[in-house]
Amino acid sequence: MVITDCKIIKTRLNKVRDNMKRRNISVYVVTTEDYHISEYPGDYFKEREFITGFTGSAGTAVISMEEAALFTDGRYYVQAELQIKDTGFHLMRSGLSEVPSISEYCRTLLGKGEVLGFDGKCVAAGFGMELEEAAKSKGASVDMEFDGIESIYTDRPSFPHTDAYYLNEKYSGESIESKLKSVRQIMTEKNCDCHIIASLDDICWLYNIRGNDVWCNPVIMCYSCIFEDKAYIYTDEDRLNGEILEAFHKAGVVVKPYESIYKDVADMRDRRILIDNKRVNVKLLKLSLLNEFCQVVQAENPEVILKSKKNPVEISNLTDLHVDDGVALTKFMCWLKKAVKSGEYVTEVTAAEYLDNLRSNISDYIELSFDTISAYNENGAQLHYHATKDNCAVLKPEGMLLVDSGGQYLRGTTDVTRTISLGPVSDDMIRHYTLTLKGMLNLAGARFLKGCTGFNLDVLARAPLWNEKIDYRCGTGHGIGYLLNVHEGSNGFRWKHNPGHNDLSVFEPGMVTSDEPGVYIEGKYGIRIENEILCVEDETNEYGTWLQFEFLTLAPFDMELIDVSLLERKDIEQLNNYNKMVYEKLSPYMNQEELAYLKANTATINI
Amino acid sequence: MVITDCKIIKTRLNKVRDNMKRRNISVYVVTTEDYHISEYPGDYFKEREFITGFTGSAGTAVISMEEAALFTDGRYYVQAELQIKDTGFHLMRSGLSEVPSISEYCRTLLGKGEVLGFDGKCVAAGFGMELEEAAKSKGASVDMEFDGIESIYTDRPSFPHTDAYYLNEKYSGESIESKLKSVRQIMTEKNCDCHIIASLDDICWLYNIRGNDVWCNPVIMCYSCIFEDKAYIYTDEDRLNGEILEAFHKAGVVVKPYESIYKDVADMRDRRILIDNKRVNVKLLKLSLLNEFCQVVQAENPEVILKSKKNPVEISNLTDLHVDDGVALTKFMCWLKKAVKSGEYVTEVTAAEYLDNLRSNISDYIELSFDTISAYNENGAQLHYHATKDNCAVLKPEGMLLVDSGGQYLRGTTDVTRTISLGPVSDDMIRHYTLTLKGMLNLAGARFLKGCTGFNLDVLARAPLWNEKIDYRCGTGHGIGYLLNVHEGSNGFRWKHNPGHNDLSVFEPGMVTSDEPGVYIEGKYGIRIENEILCVEDETNEYGTWLQFEFLTLAPFDMELIDVSLLERKDIEQLNNYNKMVYEKLSPYMNQEELAYLKANTATINI
Q1: Are B228 and B252 in contact (CB under 8 A)?
Q2: Around Cβ B168, how many Cβ atoms within 10 Å?
Q3: 3-state secondary structure of B539
Q4: What's the predicted TM-score (pTM) here?
Q5: Which chain A residues are within 8 Å of B538, Cβ to Cβ?
Q6: pLDDT tens, B373-384?
Q7: For B565, which residue in chain A has the nearest alpha carbon?
Q8: CA angle centred on B372, ends B368 and B377, rounded to 5°
Q9: Across the interface, which of A447, A455, A456 has its CB nearest the CB of B469?
Q10: pLDDT at residue B498 tops 70
Q11: In 3D, which of B287, B229, B233, B288 has the Cα closest to residue B257?
Q12: Nearest Cβ partner of A471 from B449, B459, B466?
């Protein structure tokens, strides 16, 4: 863990306060977001880290002349406490009942006539509106154009600026024109003649481009405005190659300078603007709302649902890809078991490297879809565990390694978890592994009517664990992009209803979702089994349209961790079918040793 | 089916139009509701039937000088068409895409400056507000005090006026004082110092009284206002006996004339009023909203959730009652099978009468909780089938009879369905019966975390049927009152989400819910298996508080309809456990023949 000298932080804090005074700002909020409210903001957007010294992925700083607070959640209490010690910042443990929300806290700091400042481009629309409300309620105002750190941020990493590449129809399966047509159709249904987009994956999907601006997310920094007869993409033209520009030209897409969208939105006239307040920064939303010549319709980006339904070309590519991805994972598991059992020196990190290397040799590999999680025994119980070279466990020939990994390829994105026994395991481990597997199979085997959401189906994965009074404190699964974000809306599996946040859409054919129940026993071990499942249409009869799932992921489970006596007949039938498919598809690529491993772990279980 | 002479209806319609003219009403809406928006309004409230001739339980008439329309839903298209033939009314088939909503239809009839009239006491608040919106949007106004039928309604049944009786704590399990305390606590939490109630079951629960004003619902017509230091019940005092008045006096409950609530609400000063817009007529809601001295907080009646959580005395009574209720049902099934097989003349109606008679002999029996549904073979496929003496099937020694029935007792309310084979049955019948049973058991056997609603769990009952692409077009279950309405909120099982209508509350210990999946094959047969299940608390561990269900209903299933080969091991274990309990609890009350029947149908199945 990096600890920045507390004197350095104090100096920076003083300079920030000088900047605040110069602009008459009483309270300054520094967020972790990028301009596009991406899940993984790039290094350029580390103002909050720069000013606090805290390096975690989630946190917000609130600075006044007297106070300096860092808000972060339960994952980071310990780390943040250490990193901000003696810096002048004090920790606000978000989630504890006695800790106010950030906007409530700002409210208490603000006086009448004072100004709350932040950089509206780095603040999510909902949170920005909340801050504005808080300020107003105290008779204070808001300055959304204040960046008190920029001028003092020395050695700031450069703004992301990678080359984009074009995803031709062999991979994307649909032309830009066709996608624009679908988007415009939804715009028309909503009676809108303009649609502003800021979410990078939505834009890159729409224009069939990819890049490398955000870690593990193959996107480029851009905005877009779509009208009935034209479309603008706001990005630096020098990163677009001839193939892209030609495709854009054909589809009536015009390239404009990245930052010019703000002026364009302010200058817009007589438009009904469709904008997604969950996928845009507050500056862009406010510019739209304050434009007195335009009306704003706040609704989910049409691209969200459109891109979640993978088209036949994408599905065919994914089906093909999962053979290669599964071969890599299977070879890895075979090697791992043998290496650890034979006493080879393997750590969580070198194990992950071995797997990452196998993936990187797949023909159309681009990058990982997220940092491989390799967590041995008790480390597996931490949902956000990240091993580093300096701080990782050495694998012993006992217990289990949890490996959650995936790659980005031209043929799509993968995400798979296997928990692997390395030697003797406890009865509890076997029992919990088997129940997790039952849950995973139970959900994947569901047949259901169109209209169902992940709220309806989630319990199918949990039931075998709930029956033993065990739960996992997270959703059961998330949507997955196509050579895009590994976490993608709007499909998913969850059981908890948050009023106002029931944003899981109904399942539709083509949606790809992860199915990943688990058991996490603190201080002991973690088990997760994750397969990707594809929603497919069965028939329509008098009751409606029937849907079901098909497995995309191809990789054996660990037979040494399965207690067959806990399986019902239908579990065994389902498992045998899956194993047969895995063996048939993967066996051609295995050497003799791997084949023996694959055979043993996909053997038919007698009912 | 009663057909009123169309000339009579035409004459009534003319008189109504005269009344409308006199009061300057352009459009008149006549509903089916009583003043309390009860599920089963009494005969007094049959103005819509009087004016249209249509006798169905759901429908709304809209009358203008030129038009007369009757809106009703799919259950009644055929019946309504016949009953309103040549009356001047035309049918509006609600639910068909080309048919406008009632308020949309009113909008088209209204002109600027015109008046839409209805009796606000017989119109649900939500619908009334919608009508007002529709009128306003055309520059028309609303007269909520217009009843154009009252003056011409000869031979009107008298207003419900049965004697009330007191439910002492041996049955109610909680004093009025204690219930008022809980209600006032919720009022305080919502920062309210007044709470207006119009829903009869909520009021009767609160004041531990019952009556017989509404068919199958043991309630009396009343309203209530609760304040911090006193409580008013608005009803005719002559129906309250000394025991009730004494209990009221002790609890600080004052009796006021039934109709005087309207004046009291209009005269109220400086109150924050808690009112449930889903459980009140529009007149009462508007009086509250228009009272410029008061504020209104629209929220669910606190009584809804309080009464849904049955207290230990109620649970103990129910547990006891279900033995008697189950004995009656078991004796009935034993008799039925023998009678039909031996060639006795039994119809759907005489079968129901036999069962109703057995129930009526239970010591604390009061009335049925709904009209017994007795539906043979293809009649069972109609969800709302009602056999009458003149029109009912004769039972043959083949196929199945579906019997859905229940009673009102001092010890509570019951609701149970069994589908009974009467002789040879088809393989499909056996298959569908077994899958229905699997679903019923699967849901009843759920263990789950506190926080779950019926949206999360519903799929457990449907999964075995969905797996075969069969669905039932209704919820899986509803809450059940205690000597109150057999359909009671706020618990239930459903899978379909209607935005803004996700009103299923989270399960809590003490809630009683029906678990009643089914298979309905049009023109062939219907299968439903319904048990009541009680939510009970298990332990609390690091994951949260675990809940599960216990069976209240005690009655054997039909072994001749079960294909054991379709059951998984866990189904068989659960079924054996249930059967053992049923046999133990019911066998002491059976004669030799009934005992043999019970034994055969609760026999242990070998795994």
Answers
A1: no
A2: 13
A3: strand
A4: 0.93
A5: 469
A6: 999 999 999 887
A7: A569
A8: 170
A9: A447
A10: no
A11: B233
A12: B449
